[in-house]
Specification:
Elements lengths: L2 H23 L11 H11 L4 E5 L2 E4 H17 L8 E4 L4 H13 L3 E3 L6 H11 L3 E5 L3 H15 L7 E4 L16 E2 H5 L18 E6 L9 E5 H16 L6 E4 L6 H13 L3 E4 L5 H11 L3 E5 H8 L14 E5 L3 H9 L5 E6 L8 E2 L10 E2 L3 E4 L1 E2 L4 E2 L16 E6 L12 H5 L2 E3 L7 E12 L9 E7 L4 E3 L2 E3 L1 H8 L5 E9 L8 E8 L11 H11 L8 E4 L14 H6 L10 E4 L8 E2 L2 H9 L5
Parallel strand pairs: 1-11, 3-4, 3-5, 4-8, 5-6, 6-7, 10-11, 10-12, 12-13, 13-14, 27-28
Antiparallel strand pairs: 1-2, 8-9, 14-15, 15-16, 17-20, 18-19, 20-22, 21-22, 22-23, 24-25, 26-27, 28-29, 29-30
Helix pairs in contact: 1-8, 2-4, 3-4, 5-6, 8-9
């Protein structure tokens, strides 16, 4: 960077910092404060009664109008016996009534158990049991999912038909269940005659009380319920919205991430609601409808996950994306190559990458609007050496963890203090498994993120240390005595014009230490799996951009790509299926054999050598 460019960057950062200082200097929220998700909303209503709050499928509410409906529902639920501390499950798609139920329960001090609406069967029953839900608010679009498990809920949780289920009709064309089942009460009818005034109990709720339960994705097992105190939402209303998005009442958010997920909830719904801004809510993400709707509703803000952004970047350029109003975006998992496209192609001025697990005790924010970084930590963290081969933390002779040098990936730990508590999960064993002790001094306690992160140089930053996400410890693998980051390999492979979202992982090869690299992807052009993959171009790319040990040994061309409901790529089943022909039916597997200069189809003869442990790797 030249002198002039550095001077400009320094002035820009100083300007950013000037906006940060007043926010950080303000009063820090405490658990004993009488502040909650409910009071955040009520305070915003008082400041912005006639401002538009929510737009959804042709309907629109001002803050005052929405508050009146929230109060009616809260009074109705209170009349049905729901009181402060009672957990109520919410099973619904993204829609206005989800927000209605969330805020009504928050006003009562009744924690919402926000369940992934795609779940059914055993996983759905598990979520009810994890939080001990006493009632359930279910959308018409998920009636069948709930009806299937009702006998189990009656038996295990005593959730009785006709008493403990509240049904929310769906005005959209997304369900055939237009009539309330006989085992539930129709919320729309029951709340119609209820009072529209605020409830007195709302102002008694403290920040230390549980506001919601948010579930982990469950990609490696059944979902775990993480405890979300009201304090988290109070902090989001003040810090996240002001330091990250810099939300103004005139802003409008495009929100298509699931509301049962922290990214959609915290930097999305809560941050904008707290500042009197408006929200365009969508049931789910659609790449083809994104830009037309951004233009139609003049949304200048957007919350994202990285995979969603790649879908947008992979779309052909069109006139509708030009001169768009989108100026600010916040989220997590934005890959460097996609970051450049959102800056250049789409003209987004502010990209605030964030990092933080739903159950964690710390977060990172890119408050200075630097490129390709998760930003600075808002509470004490450390990066320590991690042995990937043996899957454990490296300690010195005195039993203390060893910090990694600048630029080296390390396991991210967050110090547990009275100011940065780890609330954990509803399950005690799951909570204790995430705590690491004696990290720097005897008796200290730290939250184990399970992620590898490194500190990076971002230039002038007022002394604020900046970091970059590297990989999950379970995803990074060793091959040829070297650590391979799946994220870094994927970033290289995504540059191949035929590849749509490379999913990189390590697979076992019998008789060989470590794991061999394997990549799975769907061809950009679609069509028959594997038919048009340009192997020569693929090989040229990996040999030019990746060291030998990081170059994939196996390629799997997928017919279909499986993601979570928050668009995260799933690896576990791919690892298990690996390169075994009987498990990858319909997909095409390529291999680069030992001492071979090119990729070729995996044939039966070489597969038998892999199984026998005589492949020669």
């Amino acid at each position: 960077m030249g002198v002039l460019a550095y001077s400009r960057e320094m002035m820009r950062v100083l300007g950013e910092f000037a906006q940060i200082v007043p926010v950080l200097a303000g009063k820090k929220p405490k658990k004993e404060d009488r502040a909650s998700l409910g009071t955040i909303f009520e305070d915003s209503v008082a400041r912005n009664p006639q401002s538009v709050m929510l737009l959804f499928e042709g309907r629109q509410w001002t803050y005052s109008e929405f508050n009146a409906e929230v109060n009616q529902l809260a009074h109705m639920l209170q009349a049905r016996g729901i009181k402060r501390g009672d957990c109520v499950a919410v099973l619904m798609e993204n829609r206005a009534e989800f927000v209605l139920a969330l805020l009504a329960l928050a006003k009562l001090g009744a924690p919402s158990s926000l369940i992934n609406n795609s779940l059914s069967g055993k996983a759905l029953v598990h979520c009810f049991k994890e939080t001990g839900a006493k009632k359930c608010v279910v959308g018409a679009e998920r009636t069948n999912n709930l009806a299937e498990i009702m006998p189990e809920l009656v038996q295990s949780l005593s959730l009785e038909p006709g008493r403990d289920y509240f049904w929310v009709p769906d005005e959209g064309e997304h369900t055939d269940d237009f009539f309330c089942p006989d085992w539930a009460e129709d919320i729309a009818l029951a709340m119609a005659a209820m009072p529209k005034g605020n409830l007195s109990v709302t102002r008694e709720i403290t920040s230390g009380e549980t506001g919601t339960y948010v579930f982990t994705s469950g990609t490696t097992g059944l979902p775990k319920a993480s405890v979300q105190r009201h304090l988290k939402y109070v902090i989001a209303a003040r810090l996240v919205s002001k330091l990250g998005f810099r939300v103004k009442p005139t802003d409008r958010l495009y929100l298509c991430l699931p509301l049962y997920h922290s990214t959609g909830m915290v930097p999305g719904l809560v941050s904008f609601m707290a500042n009197g801004a408006s929200i365009f809510l969508r049931r789910s993400f659609s790449a083809s409808n994104f830009w037309p709707e951004v233009q139609q509703y003049q949304a200048n803000c957007f919350v994202y996950v990285g995979e969603l952004c790649r879908y947008l970047a992979d779309q052909p350029e069109s006139d509708i994306e030009k001169n768009n109003p989108l100026m600010k975006m916040m989220g997590n998992g934005l890959r460097p190559d996609v970051w450049d496209q959102f800056r250049g192609r789409f003209g987004v001025r502010r990209i605030c990458e964030i990092y933080g697990a739903s159950e964690g005790n710390f977060s990172f924010l890119n408050v200075l609007n630097k490129d390709k970084t998760i930003g600075a930590a808002l509470s004490p963290v450390t990066l320590v050496q991690y042995d990937l081969e043996n899957d454990n933390i490296v300690r010195d002779n005195e039993g203390r963890c060893i910090e990694v040098p600048l630029g080296e990936p390390g396991l991210l730990l967050g110090k547990i203090t009275p100011e940065s508590e780890f609330d954990g999960y509803t399950n005690f064993e799951a909570t204790t498994s995430k705590i690491v002790e004696n990290v720097k001094t005897h008796g200290d306690r730290w939250f184990n993120s399970g992620d590898l992160v490194r500190q990076i140089d971002v230039g002038f930053a007022m002394g604020m240390k900046h970091f970059q996400f590297v990989d999950r410890t379970g995803d990074t693998f060793r091959w040829r005595a070297e650590n391979v980051s799946t994220n870094e390999v994927a970033e290289v492979l995504n540059a191949h014009p035929q590849i749509t979202m490379a999913n990189v992982y390590g697979v076992e090869v019998r008789g060989v230490e470590g794991r061999a690299g394997m990549v799975a992807f769907q061809l950009e052009s679609g069509g028959e799996a594997g038919a048009a993959l340009d192997l020569n171009a693929f090989q040229t790319l990996v040999e030019r951009e990746l060291p030998d040990y990081a170059q994939p040994v196996f390629i799997r061309v997928l017919r279909n790509v499986t993601t979570t409901t928050t668009f995260k790529l799933q690896k576990q089943h791919l690892r298990e299926e690996a390169y075994h022909p009987d498990k990858v039916t319909g997909d095409t597997i390529y291999v680069r054999k030992p001492r071979s200069a090119s990729y070729e189809l995996l044939d039966t003869a070489f597969y038998q050598l892999l199984v026998a442990g005589t492949s020669g790797y």
